[in-house]
């Protein structure tokens, strides 16, 4: 499906709004303990997004993601996939419908196909396969930047839960666009 420049820009803004709200929430926290996903959320480079729920990132793997064999730890793949696939819901979200970080993970199944050496910059592609009022399924792949090597894939099932009110108090520009466009409530 071809997407116009305006549609792609709107999708990018929807995804960027997730990061903006995440950073507002974490910076206002009184906790001095770093969050498990903080480095991922601070270092993903958004490449593209579409209104149909796809998103692509580049991400550089450094030694914090390594196992003793000098390749990416399988658990690190889980954190990276969790955050990247969830953000693919951003362009499909509406106030009260999969808003900010789209619910909780029900299952995250990962197939490891090839080890990723540390120091590699990977491309992460995520695509919403199904979205409903209470459940969503997103597929993801980690690959070489040129797409020739697939390192691992995932299938991520999410359950919608209301966003915490205290998180929604951190308003971002996207909230204004939602309200201006009348994008309130689920649009199925």
Quick take:
With 188 residues, the chain is an alpha+beta fold. 30% of the residues lie in helices and 28% in strands.
What distance lies between the first and last C-alpha atoms, to the nearest angstrom?
A: 19 Å
The number of helical segments is 5
Report strand %. 25-35%
SSE order, one letter for each helix or strand: HHEEHEEEEHH
> CATH H-level name... which superfamily?
Hotdog Thioesterase
What's the number of domains?
1
Rg over alpha carbons: 16 Å
Number of DSSP strands? 6
SS-based structural class? alpha+beta
CATH class descriptor: Alpha Beta
- CATH topology: the name is Thiol Ester Dehydrase, Chain A
**CATH-level-2 architecture:** Roll
Helix content: 25-40%
The major beta sheet can be summarized as: 6 strands, antiparallel
What is the multimeric organization of the chains shown?
single chain
Q: What shape does the CA trace take? A: globular
Note down, in words, how this protein is organized.
The protein is built from five helices and six strands, in the order ααββαββββαα. Mean pLDDT is 88; it is low at 184-188. It is α+β, with helices and mostly antiparallel strands and 188 residues long. The protein has helices spanning 5-28, 38-43, 74-87, 165-168, 173-180, and strands at residues 45-50, 54-60, 104-112, 121-131, 135-144, 150-159. Strand 1 and strand 2 form a beta hairpin. It has a single domain (5-180), classed as Thiol Ester Dehydrase, Chain A (Roll), CATH 3.10.129. Strands 1-2-4-5-6-3 form a six-stranded antiparallel beta sheet.
